Amino acid sequence: MAKWRYGVILDAGSSGTRVYVYRWHDPSWSRKKGHDLNALPEIETKKKWTLKTHPGVSTFGPTPESVGTDHLKPLLDHALKHVPKNQVKDTPLFLLATAGMRLLPQIQREQVLDSICSFAREYSDFQIPDCDLHIQVIPGETEGLYGWIAANYLLGGFDNPEEHNHGKGHHTYGFLDMGGASAQIAFVPNVTETQKHANDLKLLRLRQLSGRDDEYQVFTSTWLGFGANQARSRYVDALRESTDPYIIELPDPCLPKGLKLTTDGTPVKDKAEGQILLGTGDFAQCLRQTNPLLEKEKPCNDEPCLLGGMHVPAIDFDVNHFVGVSEYWHTTHEIFEMGYKEKAYDFNTYQTRVNDFCSKPWEEIAKGINAHQWGKDVDEGIADQICFKASWLINMLHDGIGIPRVGLEGVPDSKNVTKEIINSAKSKGFLNPFQAVNKIEGTEVSWTLGKMVLYASSEVPMPEGAHPVGFGSNIPGIAMPQDFQRPSGNKGLIAEADDLFDSLFDDSPRRIPGLLLFLLILCVAALLLCGRDRRTRILSRVFTAFGCGGASRRKHSSGGSPSRLSKIFGLAPAYERVSGANAAEAAEFELGGYDFEEEIGNETGRASGWATPKLTVESPDGAGSPGKRAILGEGMLVRADSRDNLMAGVEARINRSRSPAIRSGLGKPIPE
């Protein structure tokens, strides 16, 4: 038995695809070693197991046949370096695409996905039993659910609920994610809201190593167009619509003072055609002008709503504490972490930092970038967008989602502020309403991790009477709704097969009986899969070898009913006994199998005809006299008078078919 199990996930985003390799202890191995069974499988990954390529798979919409060699090959090669060769065939591969692929026309999207699956199967031996589940475009709600699993898995909300008691029986954390095109939210509402909005929630089922199932009712939603890049595009459109088209320079409070950009965000070096954006560096005004992008004025068809008219159950911040990843992390730390080491992070401090940065002249900011004042990874392309992103993040958190404007107290000054923040949050159980994170315990908080946690959990053997791991609609009383999605196409098969193998071949007193039973099952399965004729011959020889073949035939020919084995394995036709007035007449006709070569070569012709339509065999002279017909009952063809009569009738038909009056095609006579 292998100690480790591996899994590979490719996160196919709009700008590129990143491959992640994960591993965890085989559940059966963990049980034998006496590991803590009251926990989910422990997932491991390493930084060197990750690789990203550009651009995104969505760019292959017009040329789907190129996505394999031009895009996937280096990612699969990287994964193959870190998965042991002897385990590749047992390692599942997933490619899950997000925002970029959602924007492709359906036919292009399907062609790209088909090409990806075909290439992955041909190029590697990774396990892809079901393309629809392993290679797919996932909706934003699913992406948010996977992120929620990852955050709670790393924070310990699943395995140690007593250590994460937020009050009111609540022990999980909310999850916020923001990319370029969309933003996601996922959380478990309090008891009152869960009951009130049960139909709006997803039922999620995980399985611990002990075999115990844990179910969660999670609300998850996505706001399309509310990602940082899409929000910026909507903001620029609003600037242009509110300004006279004859004005060339549009004042933009969300750009540092003096910075000039085109409306698509590229720097203006010489004279630009059309309107341009001119930074005024007024962050307070930037906050006011980005606030309408929340679209809180949109009608709410299903109360309550937060923003964009999207229904969200009421959030109880006494028990719902959120962690934010992706843009929430980058916007709060990419610029302002290194430039302000002497201060701890909180919302009030954050706004002060942003206001100070955005009010600087662009020339001063450019000098700071060249001097690596904010780190070597910060360039002008990041710096010229940070003011808008910061204002958008603050509006989303406070006026959109409604997170209270409180900060962290008691965090000492330190050169490593980020570490102190995380440690402080951990010591308090992450009980603040919001905390931006990137890694927890050295592992990146990525929705791909959540997907792999779900898969590894599904590999734990399913106890009798339990339900599969996965997620679907939260319908009361329904454990397996129609839309229930398992983590893979072969769920339960691997784990159950491993358990069967262990029980049969491990050192135990039941090994020999188990082996014999296993071989017997294989023989029966092989017998059922072979053809009926071959099965009949095999069983006849077996029965004859054991001295029971003749008895069986005699019983059947004497009018008794066929044996049960004969009916099951096809040893004889399973026709019913004929009773009444027709019994004596039917007894004259013992029908066997029909063989055309036997028909021609034997003295007496035979016909197999229990369901054969009536057939009249005409005499050679075409008169069709009754003496030459062989019909009995409704549809039962019996023996002809003799071989000569049969051959004469066949010859007559052949002669007539050669007549020029009969043409090919439909077989209808055509006048000459």
From TrEMBL:
Organism, scientific name: Microthyrium microscopicum
One GO biological process term: UDP catabolic process
UniProt entry tagged with the keyword Transmembrane helix: yes
Active-site feature positions: 143 (proton acceptor)
Region (Disordered): 605-629
UniProt protein name: Nucleoside diphosphatase
A cellular component annotation (GO) from this entry: membrane
Single GO term (MF): ATP binding
Segments traversing the membrane: 512-531
UniProt xrefs under PANTHER family: ADENOSINE/GUANOSINE DIPHOSPHATASE (PTHR11782), NUCLEOSIDE-DIPHOSPHATASE MIG-23 (PTHR11782:SF121)
Keywords: ATP-binding, Hydrolase, Membrane, Nucleotide-binding, Transmembrane, Transmembrane helix
Similarity comment: Belongs to the GDA1/CD39 NTPase family.
Residues holding ATP: 180-184
